[in-house]
Design a protein that fits this description.
The protein is α/β, with parallel strands linked by helices and 514 residues long. 34% of the residues lie in helices and 20% in strands. It has a nine-stranded mixed beta sheet with strand order 14-13-12-11-7-10-9-8-15, sandwiched between helices. A six-stranded parallel beta sheet has the order 3-2-1-4-5-6, with helices on both faces.
Amino acid sequence: MSFSGGLDEAAKHDVLTTIVVFGASGDLAKKKTYPALFHLFQQKLLPKRTRIIGYARTQMTADDFSKRVTSFFKPSDPADEVAGFLEICEYVSGKYDVDEDFQRLREEIDTNEHAMNKRESDERRESDERVHIYYLALPPSVFVSVGTQIKNNVYDGTCTNRVVIEKPFGHDLDSSRKLSQAIGGLFAEDEIYRIDHYLGKEMVKNILALRFANVFYEAVWTRHYISNVQITFKEPFGTEGRGGYFDEFGIIRDVMQNHLLQVLSIVAMRQPKSLRSEDIRDCKTEVLRRILPIQLEDTLLGQYVGTRDGSKPGYKDDDTVPKDSITPTYAQCVLHVDNDRWRGVPWVIKAGKALDEAKMVIRIQFKDMPNALFPNLARNELVLQVSPKESVSIKTIVKEPGLSTNLAMSELDLSYHKRYQDLKIPDAYATLILDVLNGDHSNFVRSDELDEAWRIFTPLLHQIETEQIVPLPYEYGSRGPKGVDEFPTERAGYKPTAKEYHWEPKSAASAGKL
């Protein structure tokens, strides 16, 4: 990880780079992987000599492939840039368990590398280094099969090899360990990049700078000043179109065990010795090891039902979802970090689908003032909004302007869309793929991190499934099931801000108005 230049490290070097996207015909590839690669191409952040090979079982012509990988590009993208990107892309069709197909893929890689070297033979190159990146935009059921084929038929020991794996990484602690052992038997840990795309989001990546570059934040970042922390993920839509897939996992496996727990580990970690990836991941793992397994009594579960007017369907109205499903689409849990910095501070993580808004926010509430000079004060809060609009705000008490001596809650507000109007914040996938190109593991999940994350959640998941815990119903578009607002107050000591106070990031149009 670098905070001092170095963002375009991959583009500075003439590294011969081959990126193989497995599952190139799938939704993930067309919606995320290829648009992210195109963004890096537009910003000239891909190495000069890069070739992108899509691999999947689907038979496609070159035109069909081009249409598919550009289907989620923006209409405003310049045609010449799209054409230039497609020139470095190609498609190879093959099965995921046939040696000969992967041998053909290796031959194609070798042919491309030879052609690129020959084409530039008269030019001076900065480096003869070669990098092969294998991006598995695939379901976990074929990770090991494809990984085995890569190692046996494609892997080139004379160059740098990097394997990118998408979540979910297992179903519980046991399955995760088996998957890690299988993948670890094929590739070294420093060759493996487990993507959690929330680690690529701008505000999540900003947490380290916010904490460790500002003395006034780190000075109060302990149990002595912080009362509770809430990490909230809300989506305003249900599982339409993927209910059958979602039912295998539920909201805890889909969002909380990975995305929200990773964010928690960054917020809670101590200062690392350096910004090197292993020092950062050591500190994250250290925090995870100190989190106690979640108890059922510290958990609130919900499942959305259709709206009263019938305009929105319920979770079980999806034909792909079993009618007797008890899979939660909403969950709220209290975690406890048993170390000297955080002992006694409740951490509330909550996530849900079909709620009232789209939002991902980290809310750090400080303790009450230890004096009665100004009684009945609301609490200070530091609020980091990760999405949809990045912002940092501090809820603070001020005197009302004018002749009044009344106190009021206000905020110090850094809204990114207001402060950085001319800066386009990159997609998380583009950020993470750039990290892979640069060989930076900081924002990827290490095997011991993954193991600890499953240790925290597996007992709860097994209890829910064994005891057939039925989630509480909540209406599509609501705030969640009964008790959603009372839960953090009763379980974590959260003190709601006065009802008359309301804050949201200001629009760019009103940014200059006083």
